[in-house]
Amino acid sequence: MPSKKRLLSAKDITEQFGIAKRTLEHWRKLGTGPEYTTVGGRGMYDRAGFEKFITAGWVRPMDTPLKKRGQPRSRPTERQ
């Protein structure tokens, strides 16, 4: 059963979410990842903030199948 501690280390995230430590390091370097703090020189992530960051990236698939090459795709309608 996964731990429900509030602050997660890179190791915790790798074990619980399957995201590599190197990916987290890359995100921190680019400034594109979830918010973090440092404790003793280690990046630590707030569980709720990290889960929010991950779920914000969900993509809704198009309702229509892809068309053959050369035919225009219909654009998805705006999400309500």
Written description of the protein model:
- The chain is α+β, with helices and mostly antiparallel strands.
- It has a domain at 11-41.
- Helix content is 35%, strand content 14%.
- It has helices spanning 10-17, 21-30, 47-56; strands spanning 7-9, 37-39, 42-46.
- A three-stranded antiparallel beta sheet has the order 1-3-2.
- A hairpin with a 2-residue loop joins β2 and β3.
- The relative contact order is 0.15.
Largest sheet: number of strands, sense, barrel closure = 3 strands, antiparallel
Which residues sit in consecutive blocks of at least 5 with pLDDT less than 50?
Answer: none
Strand count: 3
Distance between the termini: 36 Å
The coarse overall form would be elongated
- Report the order of strands and helices: EHHEEH
Overall pLDDT level: 82
Report the β-strand fraction as a percent range: 5-15%
**Helix vs. strand class:** alpha+beta
Biggest sheet, strands in spatial order?
Answer: 1-3-2
> What's the tally of helices?
3
What radius of gyration results from the CA coordinates?
Answer: 18 Å
Question: Helical residue percent?
Answer: 25-40%
List key phrases describing it:
about 80 residues, alpha+beta, three-stranded antiparallel β-sheet, 3 helices, elongated
Element layout with pairings:
Elements (H helix, E strand, L loop, with lengths): L6 E3 H8 L3 H10 L6 E3 L2 E5 H10 L24
Antiparallel strand pairs: 1-3, 2-3
In short:
With 80 residues, this protein is an alpha+beta fold. Helix content is 35%, strand content 14%.
